[in-house]
Amino acid sequence: MKIIVTGSLGHISKPLTEELLSKGHNLTVISSKQNRQEDIEAIGASAAIGSVDDVHFLAETFKGADAIYCMIPPNFSEQDQIAYYRHVGKNYIDAIEQAGVKRVVELSSYGAHLEKGTGFIVGSHYNEEAFDNLKDVVVTHIRPGYFYYNLLNFASMIKHAGFIGANYGGDDRLLVVSPKDIASAIADEITQPATRNKIVYVASDDRSCSDIAKVLGEAIGKPGLEWKTLTNEQMQSGLEANGFAKALAAIFVELGEATHKGLLREDYDLNPPVMGKITLEEFAPEFAKTYNQ
Fold this sequence. Notes:
The chain is of the alpha/beta class and 293 residues long. It is built from 11 helices and 13 strands. Helix content is 42%, strand content 19%.
C-alpha cells in the first residue's frame, strides 16, 4: 500500500512509519521542517516537506495514496486552540477531497464524544464530525487516552514542590497510553479493509492518579510521592506563573476538570479499547531517566 503519514517523525508517527515500512508498505512522511528530510529518508520513507496550512501541497502529496494518517500538529502558540484544530482539520479534508483518497485514519482523543467542556479536545470532537461528512471515504477515528509522556511535565514540580499537583488527582483514574501502542493500533487499522466509519479507543493502562504517583515515586527514589488535587484557581495561577497565556491556561484547566469529573472516559467505559502492551511500570524507568537528567 501507498500510505501517507502526517506528523513528521513525532512520538506516534515515527514508530508508525517504522512498523509500516517493516511490513513492506510504501511510506511518504509529511514534515514542515526541511532538516527532517534526511532522517525520514534514512529509515526508508519518502519525505514531503511542506505546511499543513498549504492545501495544494497536501492534495498533491495525497494523490495516489491508498490511505492517509492525519494528526493535528501541536501548536500552543495559537491562542484559540479549537479554531486551530478545526482549521487544520478542514485543510486535511479539502486535500483529501481534491486528491480522491478513500481511506483515512484520524488521530482524535478520548473525550471527543463531547461537544463542550473538555478543553482543546473539543477541537477533536468537531474534526470527527467533519471527517465523517466526507463522501465515499472510510474514516477510523483513533481515540487514545492520556499520553505517558505528558507525565514528564511533572518532573520539575516533583523536584521543587515534592508532589504532583493538578486539578485532577488522588482517586481520579487516567487511561494512560504509550505512543508506540497508539502507533501499532493505527498500523493495524490503516492496513485492514474497512467498509464503514468507526471509533477505536487505545489505552496501555488504567490507573488512579495515586497509583501513578506511587509507581513513579518508587522509580525516582521518592516512595510515598503524592498526587494532590488542586483547585481550578490554583491550577490556573500555576500555569500562568509558568508562562502560559491566560486563555491557554484556561483550556488546560477545563480539560483537567473534565478529567476530574470522569467526563473524558464516559464513552470509553462503554466501548472495549485496543489495549497496548506497555504498562505504567514499564514506562516508569523512562520517567526516571528524564527526572534524573
